[in-house]
Structure formats: structure tokens, C-alpha cells
Design brief:
single chain, mainly alpha, two-stranded antiparallel ribbon, about 5% strand, nucleus, transcription regulation, transcription, TFIID_TAF13, Transcription initiation factor TFIID subunit 13
Length: about 120
């Protein structure tokens, strides 16, 4: 019985299109509110921005992530998201492409640095 209720709630969430995780009584668990508040402050907003502003931005972020994930799942290997699929989707947006390229390069550099650090400390 409890499983049926969970499944129904999940379907409503998908049909809703609003993105967030439903925690009951019309409220959703906010996944990125702390990070968005910090980003908003960094870009010149008040240190404590309006909750409504943060909620709208979070809805936009979740909608973007959801759309990109669905698109990435439909290309390449069906039902699976890979880095190459995301890169393919954003290839025509120079700013996003450059940022993703920088982040992927930095990730590789961090992996190499961690490996070198572990080898130096543990002698593997």
C-alpha cells in the first residue's frame, strides 16, 4: 500500500513539470537553494535574496537539467547519459561549451594530481 502511494507521488511529480522533490502539502524540497543564494550574492544580489527569487531560479535550473538529461538520454547510447552526449548537446553554445571544456580539463588535472600525490605518499 505504501509503495502505491510513492509511485503515485512520483507520477504526479513528472506530470507536474515543476521539477523539485515533493515533500507533501504542496511544498517541494529545495535542492540548490543554498548554492543559488551564494551565486546570487556573488553576482550582486542582496546577501539574503527573496525566497521567491531563489525558488524561481531553482525551478529554472531543475527544468534545464531535466531537459538536458532527457535529450542526452535520447542520443548516443539509449537510456544512458555520458559526458560526450552533454558535450554534443551544448556544442553550438560557445560559452557553455568553453565552460564544460574547462571543467573537464580541470577534472583530468585533478585526477592526475591526486594519483601523483597518492603514489608519492603511499609508494604504489
Amino acid at each position: 500500500m505504501a509503495e502505491d502511494e510513492d509511485e503515485t507521488g512520483f507520477e504526479e511529480e513528472l506530470d507536474d513539470g515543476s521539477g523539485g522533490v515533493d515533500v507533501g502539502h504542496g511544498r517541494r524540497k529545495r535542492l540548490f537553494s543554498k548554492e543559488l543564494r551564494c551565486m546570487m550574492y556573488g553576482f550582486g544580489d542582496d546577501q539574503n535574496p527573496y525566497t521567491e527569487s531563489v525558488d524561481i531560479l531553482e525551478d529554472l535550473v531543475i527544468e534545464f537539467i531535466t531537459e538536458m538529461t532527457h535529450k542526452a538520454m535520447s542520443i548516443g547510447r539509449q537510456g544512458r547519459v555520458q559526458v560526450e552526449d552533454i558535450v554534443f548537446l551544448i556544442r553550438k553554445d560557445p560559452r557553455k561549451f568553453a565552460r564544460v571544456k574547462d571543467l573537464l580539463t580541470m577534472n583530468e588535472e585533478l585526477k592526475r594530481a591526486r594519483k601523483a600525490f597518492d603514489e608519492a605518499n603511499y609508494g604504489s
